[in-house]
Amino acid sequence: MSSYEFQPAKSFVAKLYWQPDDAPGNVSAVGDTGNGDSPFTSGGWLHADEDNYTNHWAAEHVIARRKFRTLFWFGGYETDGEWDFEIRAAQDEQNHPHWQRRNHRLDVSRNGYLALYSASEPAGHDPLAAASMLWRLEGLDMAKVKVGAFIANLRLVSLHGKIVKRLVEDDFPYLSEEQGQHGCLALKIVRTGCAAP
Fold it and tell me: What is the pLDDT of residues 23-74, one digit of tens each?
């Protein structure tokens, strides 16, 4: 039997931002990548900040790594007074017709990069039975989760106990649990009491 109890009333949808430790006043939107013309794009990788590939002319052709500013659903699970979250893509901010990640779950690749993966289990499922990735937002006061609130200085920690960092690799700003520069997340709460993305 799972020790995690899904709490729809404590689940919410938010915009997600990255705050670098060396410039905490600067925040950049976090979203996901879609397939583009570049051979190294497979889509779903989380990004934070600008890059040198998106809509960038190089070698007489456009490397089109499409990026989407994504809203994220944080499905709240309580155990012994602590909160962990299953994080899924809720929608693209502009409802772009090419965006296809709704209900995809945030997880970690074999190399430690954060990406959105398809999820066959419904929102609110037993995460232990399904071996689903859960995340902790260190520093989050659940009493402050209200529509319109901007909550900063949160550390995103994976189920593996690793703090998420920002890794610029090949001029692209990934999020990784393995390597990179430390920083925090900020949330702009869009909806509360959300049982599903």
Answer: 777 888 898 876 554 444 456 888 887 666 565 444 444 455 677 788 999 9
Q: CA nearest 162: which of 118, 113, 126?
A: 113
CA-based radius of gyration for the chain: 16
Residue 186: which of 140, 134, 136 has the closest Cα?
A: 140
Q: What contacts 151, CB < 8 A, 6 or more positions away?
A: 140, 141, 144, 145, 186, 187, 189
Mean pLDDT of all residues in the chain?
Answer: 85
CA 163 to chain centroid, in Å, comes to 13
Tokens of 178: 């393995």
Determine the average pLDDT of the residues in 13-21.
93
- Nearest to 70, CA basis, from 36, 106, 38: 106
